[in-house]
Specification:
Elements lengths: L3 E3 L5 E3 L3 E2 L5 H14 L3 E3 L7 H15 L7 E6 L7 H15 L4 E6 L9 H13 L3 E7 L3 H11 L5 E5 L7 H10 L2 E5 L11 H10 L3 H11 L3 E2 L6 H8 L8 H8 L16
GO molecular function, one term: oxidoreductase activity, acting on the CH-OH group of donors, NAD or NADP as acceptor
Protein name: Diketogulonate reductase-like aldo/keto reductase
Keywords: NADP, Oxidoreductase
């Protein structure tokens, strides 16, 4: 079972969580019940995913029907920021998320995109800082920020994000950004950690999987863990959830890591931050 990683705010985050992007509302109950039963404790959601009400219902049902306390789970959401990213809009959107989930204080809340053309991400960050001070969210974080944008947040507010969630996989390891994160104690958390499934067909990865008698997905997730980062693979299928969670039993040697490093080519499989300027 993958362990927990320390955050710079004194809390801890599971190294592997369950991504809820593109999980239909009607699939949430079965998906979350299965994942939590297998040992997942981090549920990574967002207002943009359109399934928060169903996620909240599933979490409440776990406590009522299966005796799994709400406090045993870490639940995340994100501020989308369209059409307007601002302090007031972040506060309003958080209230909508609170109402939809209806599970008490939120464990993690992120700015989903910096949207630098609006030039409001610092004020938006101040909203998250205030929400944390009010006890309505425990950990505040960002997604898809570059080093320059993170530096501005830190310099203008004095508050360092606990996490930066970015697209990362062997094609896009984000080494420079990871090094910046390390200087400030920011955890790198990968979305699209399997390259939206495209990594699973890469011959080098399939070869490493054959060598270790595991799945290609487990190889890629073991790579994330070896780099000291976190990841949120999404699957609605119990057998895949189980396989993903078992990735920490795969130990990659120096040759494996070198073969994976050679795959770097800068390819984005999801939306690039440059597409949301």
């Amino acid at each position: 079972m993958p362990g927990f990683l320390p955050l710079n705010d004194g809390t801890h985050l599971p190294a592997l969580g369950l991504g809820l992007y593109k999980v239909a509302p009607g699939e949430c109950a079965a998906t979350i019940t299965s994942a939590v039963g297998l040992g997942y404790r981090l549920l990574d959601g967002a207002s943009f995913y359109g399934n928060e009400r169903a996620v909240g219902e599933a979490i409440r049902a776990l406590e009522q029907d299966r005796g799994i306390p709400r406090e045993d789970l870490l639940v995340a959401s994100k501020f989308w920021g369209e059409p307007v990213q601002s302090y007031d809009q972040a506060m309003a959107d958080f209230e909508a998320t609170e109402s939809a989930l209806d599970i008490g204080p939120l464990d993690l809340y992120y700015i989903h995109w910096p949207r630098p053309s609006q030039d409001n991400y610092v004020d938006t960050w101040r909203a998250l800082v205030d929400l944390q001070a009010q006890g309505r969210v425990h950990t505040i974080a960002v997604c898809n920020f570059n080093a320059e944008e993170l530096t501005r947040l830190i310099e203008e507010t004095g508050v360092v994000p606990a996490i930066n969630q970015v697209e990362s996989h062997p094609w896009l390891p984000q080494h420079e950004l990871r090094a910046f994160h390390a200087r400030y104690g920011i955890l790198t958390q990968a979305w699209s950690p399997l390259g939206r499934g495209r990594m699973l067909a890469v011959p080098a990865i399939r070869g490493i999987a054959a060598k270790h008698g595991c799945t290609p997905a487990q190889v890629v997730l073991a790579w994330h863990l070896a780099l000291g980062g976190a990841a949120i693979p999404k699957s609605t299928r119990a057998e895949r959830q189980r396989e993903n969670l078992a990735a920490d039993s795969v130990f990659l040697d120096a040759d494996d890591m070198a073969r994976l490093a050679a795959l770097e080519n800068g390819t984005h499989t999801g939306t690039s931050p440059d597409e949301r300027r």
